[in-house]
Amino acid sequence: MTINIVGIVLGFFLACWGLFHQLIVGGAATMFKDISENEARLFVMSWVAQGGFMTFAGLAPAVMLLLHGPYTEGVQTICILSGIALVLLSVHVFATGFKSHLKPIRIGAVLELTYGIYLLGYVLYLSF
After folding, report:
1. pLDDT tens column, 106-117
2. Residues 6+ apart with CB under 8 A from 33
3. Count of structural domains within the chain
4. 65-75 as b/e, with b when 16 or more CB fall inside 10 Å?
5. How far apart are CA 18 and CA 72, in angstroms?
6. Residues 32, 92: Cα–Cα separation, whole Å
7. Domain that holds residue 118
């Protein structure tokens, strides 16, 4: 039961970070000097998309665990898919130069990796 609560809390925390990530896009866009309007639009769209992804990938497993428990196949499938997606996005951030990204992206990558590994480990734990 406690491990279930940890998953729910981590999921809601990641979702809140994703919402925060979307809200600070204006400040993040001003960090870059001398970018064209098209580059600024691309930056804003990718920033908001990453925040939306974090929000959805945090909420979907957390809400399913909260409402249905961890033992149904649908919840385990959502946990597996969300875990894989979170790990892949965080690996992308680490592979493209962790230190070169802005601090909110680095924090998000660590949160994504933590929650993704937790979800995959949780499903493996339940299957044995």
Report:
1. 999 999 999 999
2. none
3. 1
4. beeeebeeeeb
5. 27
6. 21
7. 2-127
